[in-house]
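OP here, attaching both records as promised.
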Amino acid sequence: MNRSLIKKPAAYLPVALSLTALALLLLHAARYGIIHEADAGPTAHLFQILMAAQLPLRSSQANGFRKPQGQTLRVLALQIGAALAALASVYWLT
């Protein structure tokens, strides 16, 4: 089986969830501006759910990926980079 590792759901779903959280945050900032609210709104809760939903997918990655080490590390670096971009935008906007 010579299927690329990034085509597996355990590889691309965490990246998609991170990018969705980033887009959600940027759309909220573009629409409403940077507002410091006393209570977290629905956008913050959705962001937290999207970021937390990645953890089970990343833990299943360790068990399910039996591909060459280099390909696994590239996918993991892509996942971590997308998550850090979403978290950095929260830090930058607040």
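Record two, same layout:
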Amino acid sequence: MSFSGKTILLVEDDMVSAIVISSFLEEWNLSVHRAHNGAEAVRMIQEDMRFDLILMDISMPLMDGIQATAEIRKKEIRTPIIVVTGDSRDADILAALSAGANDYIFKPVSEKQLFHTVAKLLPMES
């Protein structure tokens, strides 16, 4: 089973987190594109890049993940969004879900946690 042929937008400003998450995703045959902040992610999506799933860090410069998620949803883009947070405050998670995120995971991201969350939102091939 694999996610072969699927494309992920990873929105993450922290280099170490981006490397760790990307390595998991690429191991599952996912194509990974990276944005360094929410504003860059919104621009990439506006430039008509098609993604099967978006992994969105909440805390970033220029535009945070909650604002970026809200902007993406304003454009009626229904691509599943998983927010990634290092903070377990309920208010941030609720704000992200209210902005249009489909699910969330916590940092440090474990391979098992990431796989199960991605698999809920992205169909796998046999």
